[in-house]
């Protein structure tokens, strides 16, 4: 049985209908038609959750050799039907173009398939693992995805956002660590932002006028929503004007006679940020107000069911990771197998890294040609 289900036309998100009189909802030679989609999971992934939006689905008609793009329609996700909003003649060709959620997914394998394949290959009589519960395999499979996401799999995600007047944006729901934060300029170029190292948003304890702490009814300390450090930083002027900044000058005063160059980290006007991981916010400086920013971050790959997939280049590494994890925690596996499975896990992970590095000899040669240029000082 092939891994790919359905036709290639269905995969690319296109379904064609020829209207017939039986499909018409109105009388006469021209009418509105109700078109029923075939029950094909490859085409629409999950048709019941397909949104009725112009950005997700477009309907075109071909009548008498004339193509009309973007015909009004109504989609019923209960009956899996489309009702044309524009009357057309019987015998017209109607093309429904759909943004298929499965585009490009053939390179991945789902967590469920990995678990099923592992049970077939590793679990059973006369196999490495005589007996294990499916729940244990599922746990170690998720742990494998999580660990491989940090340094092996292509698990970098990105979000584009506009910085509000509050100068703080919530971290992505599946955020683990950031890769890069950048400002998008008018040409669409990413201008990297650097982290602020001399400010933060510490936990602010509420105090009385005499500087004594304020406690609640249970005798616990009370805290302010934001610290004075963040409030003052938020109200400061743009960091682009730093030529007469007293803070910068005071830092350099102790280095008088020793300054031979500028700090590259501060030699830019792109803006700065810092991440308050405790409260879950990214804080930007005042110059970023209203600008478009982008954050690339690392996810553990377990946030949603759709994300729990593994690239086929790393499929074997996941199997070896699960096998070693189960063998090292179950007494039913002979101890002599554990060192072997550990070595196989290491080798499979290394092989997955090499495969996913995606190095192309021609691209690398073109980049390395720049290394032959003389650098003049």
Short summary of the structure?
By secondary structure, the chain is of the alpha+beta class. The chain contains nine helices and 19 strands.
Structural class estimated from helices and strands: alpha+beta
Number of domains in the coordinates? 3
Strand content: 15-25%
Order of helices and strands: HEEEHEEEEEEEHHEEEEEHHEEEEHHH
Silhouette? extended
Quote the distance from N terminus to C terminus.
Answer: 64 Å
Report the average pLDDT across residues.
79
Biggest sheet strand line-up? 1-9-4-5
The number of E-state strands comes to 19
* Biggest sheet architecture: 4 strands, antiparallel
Rg over CA atoms: 29 Å
Helix amount: 10-25%
Number of helices: 9
Low-confidence stretches: 41-54, 237-246
What characteristics describe this protein?
377 residues, alpha+beta, Immunoglobulin-like, 3 domains, 4-stranded antiparallel sheet, 9 helices
Give an account of the 3D structure:
The chain is an alpha+beta fold and 377 residues long. It folds into 3 domains: 8-98, Immunoglobulin-like (Sandwich); 110-154 and 307-355, no CATH class; 156-237 and 263-298, no CATH class. The protein is built from 9 helices and 19 strands. The strands form 6 sheets. A 4-stranded antiparallel β-sheet has the order 1-9-4-5. Strands 11-18-13-14 form a 4-stranded antiparallel β-sheet, with no helix packed on it. The chain has a 4-stranded mixed β-sheet with strand order 12-17-16-15, with no helix packed on it. Helix 3 (111-122) packs across helix 4 (134-151) and helix 7 (315-327) packs antiparallel against helix 8. The longest helix has 20 residues, at 337-356. The chain is extended, with a radius of gyration of 29 Å. 20% of the residues are buried.
């Amino acid at each position: 049985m092939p891994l790919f289900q359905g036709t290639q036309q269905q995969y690319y998100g296109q379904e064609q209908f020829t209207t017939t009189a039986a499909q018409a909802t109105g009388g006469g030679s021209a009418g509105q038609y109700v078109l029923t989609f075939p029950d094909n999971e490859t085409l629409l992934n999950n048709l019941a959750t397909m949104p009725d939006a112009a950005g997700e689905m477009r309907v075109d008609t071909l009548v008498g050799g004339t193509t009309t793009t973007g015909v009004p329609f109504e989609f019923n996700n209960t009956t899996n039907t489309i009702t044309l909003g524009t009357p057309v003649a019987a015998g017209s060709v109607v093309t429904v173009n759909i943004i298929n959620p499965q585009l490009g997914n053939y390179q991945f394998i789902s967590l469920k398939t990995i678990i099923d394949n592992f049970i077939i290959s590793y679990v059973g009589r006369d196999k490495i693992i005589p007996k294990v519960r499916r729940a244990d395999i599922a746990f170690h499979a998720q742990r494998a995805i999580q660990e491989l996401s940090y340094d092996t799999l292509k698990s970098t995600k990105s979000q584009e956002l506009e910085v509000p007047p509050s100068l703080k944006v919530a971290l992505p729901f599946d955020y683990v660590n950031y890769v890069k934060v950048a400002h998008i300029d008018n040409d669409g170029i990413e201008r990297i932002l650097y982290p602020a190292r001399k400010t933060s948003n510490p936990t602010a304890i509420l105090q009385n006028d005499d500087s004594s702490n304020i406690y609640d009814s249970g005798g616990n300390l009370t805290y302010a929503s934001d610290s004075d450090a963040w409030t003052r930083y938020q109200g400061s002027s743009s960091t682009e004007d730093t030529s007469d900044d007293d803070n910068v000058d005071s830092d350099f005063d102790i280095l008088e006679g020793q300054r031979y160059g500028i700090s590259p980290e501060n030699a830019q006007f792109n803006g700065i940020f810092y991440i308050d991981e405790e409260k879950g916010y990214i804080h930007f400086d005042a110059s970023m107000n209203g600008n478009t920013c982008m954050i690339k971050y690392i996810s553990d790959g377990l946030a949603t069911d759709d994300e729990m997939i593994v690239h086929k280049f790393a499929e074997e590494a996941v199997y070896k990771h699960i096998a070693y994890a189960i063998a090292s925690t179950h007494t039913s596996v002979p101890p002599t197998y554990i060192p072997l499975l550990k070595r196989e896990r290491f080798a499979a992970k290394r092989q997955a890294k090499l495969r996913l590095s995606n190095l192309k000899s021609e691209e690398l040669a073109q980049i390395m040609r720049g290394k032959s240029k003389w650098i003049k000082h």
